[in-house]
Amino acid sequence: MQTSSALSARQLAAYAAFAQSLADRVRPLSRKWFRHSLDVETKPDDSPVTQADRQVEEALREAIASHHPGHGIFGEEFGPSHAEAEFVWSLDPIDGTRAFISGNPLWGTLLALLHRGRPVLGLIDIPMLEERWIGLAGKATRFNGEPCTASACADLSGAILYATSPDIFSVAELAAFDTLATQTRMRRYGGDCYSYGLLASGHVDLVVEAGLQPYDYLALAPVIEGAGGVMTDWAGQPLGLASKGRVIAAATPALHRQAMQVLGAAMA
């Protein structure tokens, strides 16, 4: 991913420091609700939401409005605000709410900064494990402050494939995913955003999902790309606010091409 010509390395570093301060700010807030009694509501899209999701996003929005009042926000729980702005923050306060409410610690907070519609910063924070990945356009992804690298896997036959759940796919998408999975070394379910962090650190080779919203995937692309991987939609197009929510994250360009070809043929 190339750094936008209008953004200097110094500006990106400043935004990265701010993003990390946001994650630091809300870690204790989400942690205090974990494995405690929660009121769980069902949103119109049938996904669950709790007071933890809302409180974390409110805290993120307040901090962004205070420090960068001209920036827009696209958040899961409270929707878009000035999404036409030059800079827009994408917020998923608790990615993996189902994991959160069932006591599984592999949920995270996702933050992305878009500049003129392109994600130039992505952060995955896993509060209960105190693990964090941050990716910046044109820079190497860092895991807990140290550079990390995706695997060298270049063939489906050797790939470890992840998806959060078979339930995220339509009937046709699941059939295509199954076709792909039969050609890989192994398939595993679970992880939500954590799977993408594992890919960036070289433990997982391929993540394929569908039905995602922008706040689910925008933070992930800079992390994957800064680790040497590739992340696009199923047609190979870059991810943005208007993407359809089908994503492929792969450790290498060769693996990405193979996965895209299998999925494309299966969906034809």
Structural overview:
- The strands form three sheets. The chain has an eight-stranded mixed sheet, with helices on both faces.
- The chain is 34% helix and 25% strand.
- With 268 residues, the protein is α+β, with helices and mostly antiparallel strands.
- The model is unreliable at 1-5 (pLDDT under 50).
- It is globular and about 50 Å long.
- The protein has eight helices and 15 strands.
Observed structural traits:
globular, 15 strands, 268 residues, disordered N terminus, 5-stranded mixed beta sheet, alpha+beta
Structure, briefly:
Helix content is 34%, strand content 25%. It is built from eight helices and 15 strands. The protein has helices spanning 9-33, 51-67, 97-101, 171-181, 194-200, 214-217, 220-226, 253-267, and strands spanning 41-42, 48-49, 72-75, 79-81, 87-95, 108-115, 118-126, 131-136, 142-143, 146-147, 160-163, 186-189, 206-209, 230-233, 247-250.
